[in-house]
Amino acid sequence: MSGQAAVRRWPLFLIASPAAVAIWSGWVGLGGLCGFGPIHPLPGIADGFTLNTAITLPVGVEAYGAYALRAWLTPGVPERAQGFARKSAIGALALGMCGQVIYHLLDAAHAARAPWPVVVLVSCMPVVTLGFGAALTHLLRATAAETAPGVHPVTAPRVHPHGAPGVHLNGASAPAPVTASKRTRKPVTEADAEVHFAADLAAGQTPSARRIRRELKVGQPRAAEIRQHLETVSPPAPDPQPADARPAPKGYPAGTGVHQGGHPS
After folding, report:
1. Cα 14 versus chain centre, distance
2. Sign of torsion, CA 209 213 216 218?
3. What is the pTM of this model?
4. Which residues have CB under 8 Å from 264's CB, separation 6+?
């Protein structure tokens, strides 16, 4: 290695060898107290083949602990997989310590069999170990595929409403049609409100804020402002008298209207 001395691994074998012997014997002994023992896995095929199921405990639990510990401490492992590996590795190591403690306590007491809570816990361990191992492997593979260089998610080609023009020859999806963005609503002004409620204003009535909000599509604060403005708007003054009702000039009979030009009607 450049600039650094290679890390020697042989001390790890010296440390792990006695630990492996103690762990193996503890799990096998605890398995025997919990009902694990020799079985014939291939009856009728190989009757002489015998397997002691007690070895499944040290192989499964401790192997997964080492697997999760490696995923936790390896640089570059994605955060999601690393977090799962950290929690499960600590749990596997704690479970392994509990198993050793339980076995040695039962062995020191010369117990012939383990209590039923211990049997239930030990019986579930192979299944739990399998599930955790599959989950961690899935996380490592999924995150590695997402972060791999040059790998892009595959998208299905867009189906054009008229057929072939929507699909390119190279399999890439056709570009999405350009659509107009959502139009921005023009703000409602006081003048717009006057025109909209002209009939009410002419009748001397001011619409309520609720009606303004409903018909002009504005919020409650804006509706209150518009209503306050409409209260200050005076209705247009009506024509006081029609042309025919004007008083007749002097010298003409009463009730005679005057047209433009001064001629009586």
Report:
1. 47
2. positive
3. 0.48
4. 248, 249, 252, 256, 257, 258
Q: Tokens at residue 119, please?
A: 């049997």
Interatomic CA distance for residues 238 and 44, integer angstroms = 113
Question: Would strands 38-39 and 51-52 be described as parallel, antiparallel, or unpaired?
Answer: antiparallel
Give the lowest-confidence range in 127-131, 212-216, 254-258.
Answer: 254-258
SS3 11: helix
Closest to 35 in 3D by CA, of 126, 131, 129: 126
Helix pair 116-147, 63-73: axis angle to 10 deg: 40
CA angle 202, 206, 210 (to 5 degrees): 140
3-class SS at 160?
Answer: strand
Binned at pLDDT 50, 70 and 90, residue 133 comes out as very high
The phi and psi torsions of 133 (rounded to 5 degrees) equal -65, -40
Whether 86 contacts 74, CB under 8 Å: no
Among 27-41, 70-84, 139-153, the range scoring the smallest mean pLDDT is: 139-153
| Alpha carbon distances (Å) from 188 to 194, 198, 217 | 11, 15, 9
Length of the chain, in residues: 265
Domain-by-domain residue ranges, the chain? 16-146, 190-234
Least confident of 60-74, 94-108, 243-257: 243-257
